[in-house]
Amino acid sequence: MKLHNLKAPETNQKTRKRVGRGQGSGTGEQSGRGHNGQKSRSGSKVKAWFEGGQMPLQRRVPKFGFKNPFRVEYKALNVQKLADFIEAGRLSENISFTDLVGVGLVDDKQRVKLLGTGELSQKVSIEVHACSNSAKEKVESAGGDIKIIS
What's the rounded Cα separation, in Å, for the pair 46 and 49? Predict the structure, then answer.
């Protein structure tokens, strides 16, 4: 096989459809855009959610409830997850918030709440933004303590 024997595959040789080149071309007149209307004009940009001036669905549906703008979101961290990371050697017994960020359990902008799901056998000292009563009991019964970050 030589370079002069090479040939492009059939699919690459398909020519694009040229629209708007007169009536004899078969794609003249409306050029595949149908009759009249906003989308038939050049430069038409209609947003996908625009309903032609009809009241949009999102505004027709009734609203209810209340969203508190001052709500504080916490990232949940279970005692079991903490125990798993200590057992794997990724965390030591003195755990600061930066350690939790370092191992990827939380983001640096998130607040952390320690929850009591699971068991903890090691003595642990940990810094979190909040904790549940059951988590506090489990950490303290294992001989550790919890420091709340304000």
Answer: 8
Which residues touch 138 (CB under 8 Å, ≥6 apart)?
A: 79, 116, 119, 120
pLDDT digits (tens, 9 = 90+) for 23-38: 999 898 999 899 998 8
CATH of domain 74-148: 3.100.10.10
Altogether, the residues listed in the chain come to a count of 150
DSSP 71-84: PPPEEEEEHHHHHH
CA distance 113 to 128: 6
From 81, 150, 148, 76, select the one nearest 112 (Cα to Cα): 76
Instruction: Give the alpha-carbon dihedral of 98, 103, 105, 106, to 10 degrees.
Output: 40
Which stretches of 7-144 are assigned E, i.e. beta strand?
74-78, 94-95, 111-115, 125-128, 130-131
Claim: this prediction has a pTM higher than 0.90: no
